[in-house]
Amino acid sequence: MNLFFKKIQSAKGVSLLELIVAIALFAVLMLSATAIFKMVINGQRNAISAQNVQENMRYIMEKISKEIRMAQISNQECGTAAINKVFNTANGGSEIYFKNQNGDCVTYYLENKRIKIMVGVNGVNDFVTPAKIEVNNLKFYVVDDLIGVSSSLQPYVVMAMDAKAVGQAINQQAMKIQTTVSSRYYDNGVAAPASCTPDCTGKVCGDDGCSGSCGSCGANETCLSGVCATTSKTYTCSAKPATGTEWNTVSSYNQTWNGSAWSPADDPTTEYNATASAVSCRFTCATNYTWSGSACVASTQTYTCSAKPATGTDWNTVSSYNQTWNGSAWLPADDSTTEYNATADTASCRYTCASGYHWSGSTCVSNTNTYACSAKPATGTDWNTVSSYTQTWTGNAWAPADDATTEYNATASSVSCRYTCSSGYVWNGSVCVKNTMFPLYFNITFPLIF
């Protein structure tokens, strides 16, 4: 035993210096880990931003390139300056005009740092680049676009622009994009042969095969494969979760045909997003619901009961309880009345009588009571033995019982209302009267015997 205590006494603790060094090392490790984590997150955001820019610009370049490639000759139909040309633009300008394969005049130009398309002369226009991509320095360089004169080169267009993601500077991922597209319109320096026979079979619009037109479409319509199609429709979002959600902001939105696709694009996935949008399918959590990371869950609150009687009561079982929002009301419901109830409940406002108290039918009263006797006759009487006594509640009655009648009784009792005659008084059968026999007794004269 002594050896054991000696070992305990000789054991050494950690010094302050050792503790400070350990804390410093831990702090350095945590700072390093935080810096690495932040670097990884920023890298991931940059990669996603670059991917978004590349995917969107690849689509835009392919769309514009397709229409440029299939453009046909225009003679003042798509702009007054376009005389016997395929493309009409100032060299290095930010706009380009041409007639597409369907015979519609098409204009691509830059507006508010987004590329926009206009179908027809002063016709329907819409953006083809999303708001999350910013485009700058859009330039079109046209080479040898004069048709039917002396040129032997095919017309082609060099398209260049700067693009970057909209957002924080660290995640913008700016990039320069350039492509060259040649026209498929064959330039042999001569006009179309006189033997060309226009063919509009099955067509109501578009090219007739001889540089002519099969007709034009009306307002809010565009020519698709020789058929006039509406340029606007309503896109309806897929259903959002039924419970605890509301649309943010719309459950459907209007789309416009831009010549090759509907804009804004279809949004096939209805998903949670706290940022409101009128052109995508988004929902947010309804009032009293909170986003958990995967779903909108009901919010909770604590309902506090009103005060119970201060004396002789205990809560049965709680003075407050948790409520959950079910979509239209808080459950369990508010219990605005705190009342006596001997059955315990954790979802309502109830109290019961405390130890040493019992329910009288209207309040909790003490299990002990002092019973005061009614008055005894004032003259010539004394209490026999008490004028009041203590009672205890048995569960259904007071014990000793109430003694409603204070009466004469020569036998002493501490649990009933009794009185006896005072000294100098005697009971005459109904009241205590003054004793008058004692003076006569003491006045008797006894004869002297010698």
What is the overall silhouette?
elongated
Number of helices: 3
- Provide the residue-averaged pLDDT: 81
Strand content: 25-35%
Biggest sheet architecture: 4 strands, antiparallel
The separation of the N and C termini measures 106 Å
When the domains are counted, the total is 4
Structural class of the helix and strand makeup?
alpha+beta
Helix content: 10-25%
Strand order of the largest sheet: 1-2-3-4
| Radius of gyration, CA atoms, in whole angstroms | 52 Å
How many strand elements?
33
Provide the low-confidence segments as ranges. Answer: 188-194, 440-446
Task: Give a description of the structure.
It contains 3 helices and 33 strands. It is α+β, with helices and mostly antiparallel strands. It folds into 4 domains: 38-182 and 204-230, no CATH class; 231-298, no CATH class; 299-364, no CATH class; 367-442, no CATH class. The protein has a 4-stranded antiparallel beta sheet, with no helix packed on it. β2 and β3 (114-119) form a beta hairpin. The longest helix has 54 residues, at 16-69. The radius of gyration is 52 Å and the shape is elongated. The N and C termini lie far apart (106 Å). Residues 188-194 and 440-446 have low confidence and may be disordered.
Sequence-ordered SSE layout with sheet pairings:
Layout: H1 2-10, H2 16-69, E1 95-99, E2 105-111, E3 114-119, E4 124-127, E5 133-143, E6 156-165, E7 175-182, E8 221-224, E9 227-230, E10 232-236, E11 245-247, E12 252-257, E13 262-263, E14 271-272, E15 282-285, E16 289-291, E17 296-298, E18 300-304, E19 313-315, E20 320-325, E21 330-331, E22 339-340, E23 350-353, E24 357-359, E25 364-366, E26 368-372, E27 381-383, E28 388-393, E29 398-399, E30 407-408, E31 418-421, E32 425-427, E33 432-434, H3 437-442
Parallel strand pairs: 14-15, 22-23, 30-31
Antiparallel strand pairs: 1-2, 2-3, 3-4, 5-6, 6-7, 8-9, 10-12, 11-15, 12-13, 16-17, 18-20, 19-23, 20-21, 24-25, 26-28, 27-31, 28-29, 32-33
